Amino acid sequence: MHDAMAVLPKLQTGLDVNVKFTVVRDFEYTPECIIFDLLRIPLFHGWLVDPQTPEIVAAVVLEALVIENFLERSASQLTYHGLSELTTSMEDDQIGVLFRNNHFSTIYKRQKELLQLVTDQGFLGESSVVWETLGSIDGDGQFVDSHFRTDPPKPELASSGDSASPHPTSPHSASPHPLN
């Protein structure tokens, strides 16, 4: 408990976790990991070496050039093999924490689909954007609402270039508050 209490102040600035490239739940032990263990929150990552590429598997501890190539190709800290293993490892209706790009995000598996909680402030006023599907490593997921329905961003918000603007930009729109 004392170790966990010492980690709590670090939550404001970030935790030090080191992934192992073999299993989605495999991390090098650091004192920061104790907080997840204590709260029984599963911690995942998807930055895995595909076992069907034996030269990379063998080189992860031996050959620096191959390792560098692997790191460049997986700069998003998620591989297709990792995504597949995440989908397989998580149970339906399980919530977990995904470590990716040196950030933690909430992930949820629903009906064999992975979703991550949208926490970007640009969507703060968008009640139709709660989760983003996590079906590829390229970040091209779809936004869904709290009922897991796909609802694309409103055209007036997307075309205005200012996602924080709550009002349509059409010149024919009526102002919600008349000017005095």
Protein topology:
Layout: H1 2-7, E1 18-19, E2 27-28, H2 34-38, E3 43-44, H3 54-59, H4 64-73, H5 80-89, E4 95-100, E5 103-110, E6 113-117, E7 131-133, E8 143-144, H6 155-160
Parallel strand pairs: 3-4
Antiparallel strand pairs: 1-2, 4-5, 5-6, 6-7, 7-8
State the oligomer: single chain
Compute the CA-based radius of gyration.
20 Å
The span between the termini is: 60 Å
Beta-strand content: 15-25%
Mean pLDDT: 79
Helical content band: 10-25%
Region (Disordered): 142-180
Catalytic activity: Thiol-dependent hydrolysis of ester, thioester, amide, peptide and isopeptide bonds formed by the C-terminal Gly of ubiquitin (a 76-residue protein attached to proteins as an intracellular targeting signal)
Biased composition (Low complexity): 163-180
GO molecular function: cysteine-type carboxypeptidase activity; cysteine-type deubiquitinase activity; histone deubiquitinase activity; K48-linked deubiquitinase activity; K48-linked polyubiquitin modification-dependent protein binding
What would you say this structure looks like, in words?
By secondary structure, the chain is α+β, with helices and mostly antiparallel strands. The protein has a domain of about 110 residues. It is about 25% helix and about 15% strand. It has six helices and eight strands; from the N terminus they run H-E-E-H-E-H-H-H-E-E-E-E-E-H. The strands form two sheets. It has a six-stranded mixed sheet, with no helix packed on it. It is globular, with a radius of gyration of 20 Å. The termini are far apart. Belongs to the MINDY deubiquitinase family. FAM63 subfamily. Keywords: Hydrolase, Protease, Thiol protease, Ubl conjugation pathway. It holds the Pfam family MINDY_DUB. This is Ubiquitin carboxyl-terminal hydrolase.
